[in-house]
Amino acid sequence: MDAVDALNEIAFWLERELAPSFKVQAFRRAAVAIGDLDRQELADRVHDGRLQAMKGIGSRTAEVIGQSLYGMPDYLENLRRQGSEPLATGGQEVLTAVRGDLHAHSDWSDGTTSIDVMVATAALLGREYLAVTDHSPNLTVAHGLTADRLQQQLEVVAGLNDAQRAKPHGGVRVLAGIEVDILENGQLDQTPELLGRLDLVVASVHSKLRADSISMTRRMLAGIRDPHSNVLGHCTGRLLSGTRGTRPPSTFDAGRVFAACAENNVAVEINSRPERQDPPDDLIKVALDAGCLFSIDSDAHAPGQLDFLSYGAERASANGVPVDRIVNSWPVEQLLEWASSRR
Asked: CA angle at residue 313 from 311 to 319, to 5 degrees?
């Protein structure tokens, strides 16, 4: 088995089960460290002991590399066995209908890997399209993209799409996007000119999450009414578990917010991250009654997390969300027409 493929697949399975990032990155770093070595050179280093002297190679990764020369590594075989069942048992009909993912991060902001690795994983999972939605400048803790860096990323995405089109069946369509902050005054945290050049805009609140209901409602309504907004991301901001601890949901007038989403053709995100599960079930029902569209998104910050769509599909199904109201069940051209319709 190819050693680089084995290391990256192990990282995928670990990311999928939310293993600690240091553990995942050990395998990603090892894959990079040996990426330029041919099979014979790799075998020589394994046999004469030089492999573990390489920077980025530890005892477990060295074991995986050595075993990959002769077959499937034991560690990978165990992870495949553990991951053979889907993450969620319900919502399979919805998951099958979902064609792409509209919320994913790369190492341009706070994701762990390059865009091309995220795209390659999306292809393995059968996605037709993937929106790259790194953070905007205000979120400095997540290394948000300045206008200059976003313009550079647009060029990278264009190049990736050229490469994808050369593949059989056209490969995965990469959508140029952003997760843009809705600032305290309701404005979006990027220039209108750049937002207008993107395929898709996820608008989210990331700061002052404990603001009073009146202030938060006013802020969210302004962001939703901005003609560049396409998806309202993780609307309550709650955290149920995870390394960042827990956080209660923000308070806002859900009736008014979701009515504005329906009126302005903005989809409500069903965020699939297990620590978010946002919106809560009761708010999904409010959004349904308001006539909203929905987007089931992974909010992936690592390749293995792209499989989180299973969780969102299960929740959408359990709450009776019709497939035809899930925008990322649409063919990409229909999706792009919808996303550009207000600009």
From this structure: 105
The single-letter code of the amino acid at 235 is: C
- Within this chain, do residues 213 and 119 fall inside the same structural domain, yes or no? yes
pLDDT digits (tens, 9 = 90+) for 196-214: 999 999 999 999 999 999 9
CA dist 29 and 326 (Å) reads 37
Write b or e for each residue in 159-193: b if 16 or more Cβ atoms lie within 10 A of its Cβ, otherwise e: ebbeebeeeeeebbbbbbbbbbbbbbeeebbbeee
Q: Which residue intervals of the chain are DSSP H helices?
A: 3-16, 21-33, 39-48, 59-68, 74-82, 92-97, 115-124, 147-165, 192-197, 213-225, 254-263, 281-290, 309-318, 332-340
Containing structural domain, residue 48:
3-82
Judge if 158 and 300 occupy the same domain.
yes
Phi/psi at 179 (5° precision): -100, 100
Task: Output the pTM of the full model.
Answer: 0.94
Please work out, in degrees rounded to the nearest 5, the angle formed at the alpha carbon of residue 197 by the alpha carbons of 194 and 199.
125
Residue type, 160: L
- Sign for the pseudo-dihedral over CA of 285, 287, 290, 294: negative
Pair 264, 285 in one domain: yes
Distances (CA, A) of 256 to 216, 252, 285: 11, 9, 14
Same domain, 138 and 68: no
Exposed/middle/buried for residue 69 (C-beta within 10 Å: 0-12, 13-18, 19+): middle
- pLDDT tens profile 231-254: 999 999 999 998 889 999 999 999
Give DSSP secondary structure letters for 52-100.
Answer: GGSTT--HHHHHHHHHHTTS--HHHHHHHHHTSS-S-SS-HHHHHH--E
Is cis: bond before 279, omega within 30 of 0? yes
Looking at 82, 108, 128, the residue that finishes a domain is 82
CA-based nearest residue to 179, from 208, 200, 152:
200
